[in-house]
């Protein structure tokens, strides 16, 4: 395989690997038991890193794809959603935080599914990227600190506020698109 062909596949391969990482993360989290889950935390951080790396490489090598534009944010939503559900179920994060994150992600996923046939192009905004970065960081810190440590939960609240802001931004853009059609 030529280097050019390989470059076209690497960003999407990283995204697909993030989908595959979800059950491994879940297993590592459950195996950790009570207390800091360092294995799951490191694995979660690696997933966050691949999120940055796949987008960077796709843009740098000019190999952005329709698949990547949909699959990359979906992989993030599923990885973050899995972490949120597991951390809520084990008492690491509050129910309200979990509900807001999961509900916002479900609205975005279902909304995209409904709007895509009418030509809606998913373009991740800077606010959306920032929210994802902060959520990855906050959840990663919750994973590796003692239960009840306050500062990761404050960072999580900031991430949730950013995610809500990004969600509103996406909804306003979608509403504008629907008015044009």
What does this structure look like?
With 181 residues, this protein is mainly alpha-helical. The protein has one domain (3-180): Four Helix Bundle (Hemerythrin (Met), subunit A) (Up-down Bundle). It has six helices and no strands. The chain has helices at residues 3-32, 38-60, 66-89, 95-115, 126-144, 150-180. The chain is globular.
Question: Helices and strands in order, then pairings?
Answer:
Blueprint: H1 3-32, H2 38-60, H3 66-89, H4 95-115, H5 126-144, H6 150-180
Helix pairs in contact: 1-2, 1-3, 2-3, 2-5, 3-4, 3-5, 4-6, 5-6
Question: In summary, what is this structure?
Answer:
With 181 residues, this protein is mainly alpha-helical. The protein is built from 6 helices and no strands.
Helix content: over 70%
Q: Structural class, from helix and strand content? A: mainly alpha
What is the 3D shape? globular
Write down the CATH class. Mainly Alpha
Order of helices and strands: HHHHHH
Tally of helical segments = 6
Please give the radius of gyration in angstroms: 17 Å
Distance between the terminal alpha carbons, to the nearest Å? 44 Å
Keywords for this entry:
single chain, 181 residues, mainly alpha, Four Helix Bundle (Hemerythrin (Met), subunit A)
């Amino acid at each position: 395989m030529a280097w050019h062909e390989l470059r076209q596949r690497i960003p999407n391969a990283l995204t697909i690997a993030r989908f595959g990482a979800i059950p491994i993360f879940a297993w590592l989290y459950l195996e950790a038991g009570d207390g800091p889950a360092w294995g799951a935390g490191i694995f979660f951080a690696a997933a966050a890193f691949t999120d940055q790396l796949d987008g960077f490489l796709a843009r740098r090598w000019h190999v952005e794809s329709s698949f990547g534009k949909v699959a990359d944010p979906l992989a993030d939503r599923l990885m973050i959603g899995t972490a949120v559900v597991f951390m809520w179920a084990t008492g690491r994060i509050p129910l309200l935080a979990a509900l807001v994150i999961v509900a916002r992600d479900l609205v975005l996923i279902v909304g995209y599914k409904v709007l895509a046939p009418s030509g809606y192009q998913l373009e991740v905004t800077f606010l959306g990227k920032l929210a994802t970065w902060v959520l990855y960081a906050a959840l990663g810190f919750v994973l590796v600190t003692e239960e009840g440590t306050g500062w990761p939960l404050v960072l999580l609240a900031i991430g949730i506020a950013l995610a809500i802001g990004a969600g509103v931004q996406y909804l306003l853009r979608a509403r504008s698109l629907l008015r044009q059609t």
